[in-house]
Amino acid sequence: MGAYSLDLPQSPRDAVFRAMETIVRQSPTFQRVVKPSSFRTWTGKPDDAKEFTFSIAPAMRWTPTNGPDTFATPSMMKGPLYIGCEILLPGTNVSDLLNFWFMLVRCFYPDQPGNNTVALGLQNAGAYTGLVLLPQPAFDPSPDGVWLAGFGQLQIDVRSDINS
After folding, report:
1. What is the DSSP string of 126-142?
2. How many CB atoms lie within 10 A of CB 93?
3. Contact 58, 89 (CB under 8 A)
4. Domain extents for the chain?
5. Torsion angle defined by CA atoms of residues 34, 60, 23 and 71, in that order, rounded to the nearest 10 degrees
6. DSSP of 78-146, one letter per residue?
C-alpha cells in the first residue's frame, strides 16, 4: 500500500491494482531480476518522483488508468483497469524483452494447470473475472544502442457494487 494523503475509502480499482502489484513483487523470478526500488508503482514514496532511467535497469513502472464503466447488473458496474507498463532493460537482445514480458504472464498465469488461485485472489480484491490481459509491448532500442525500452499494457475488468 502507498502513503495516502487523502482520507478516502479504497476504490475497487486501487485494490485490484495493489493486488496485482503484490503478485508480481512476490514472484521469485521477478525478485531475482528486478530490485524492489526498480519496480515503480506510484505508492507515494519519494522514489516515485525519481527519474525513470536506464541507470536503474532492469526496471519496470506501472501507471494505472481507469476505463469506462458500464452496468453489468442493476447494482454493479464493471469496467477495465488499464495499467501502462514501461520496461527498461540493459543490452540489445530482444529475447530479453520478450522473456521479461513472459515473466509477467507467468505471474498471473503460473504453469500449473487447473490452478486458479491468482484469479480468485484478484476476484477477492474486486476483479470481475480475475483474468489479466497482457498485450505484447512495443520496444525501441536506445539511441546509443545498449538498452531496450518497452511499453505495453495490462488490462483487467473490475467490478464496483453501487449499492454498498
Report:
1. TBSS-PPB-PPPEEEE-
2. 11
3. yes
4. 12-161
5. 180
6. EEEEEEEEEEEEESS-HHHHHHHHHHHHHHHS-S-TT--HHHHHHHHHTBSS-PPB-PPPEEEE-TTSS
Amino acid at 28: P
**132, 108 Cβ separation under 8 angstroms:** yes
Task: Say which CATH architecture domain 12-161 belongs to.
Answer: 2-Layer Sandwich (3.30)
Distance CA 22, CA 100 (A): 17
pLDDT tens-digit profile of 56-112?
Answer: 999 999 999 999 999 999 999 999 999 999 999 998 888 999 999 999 999 999 877
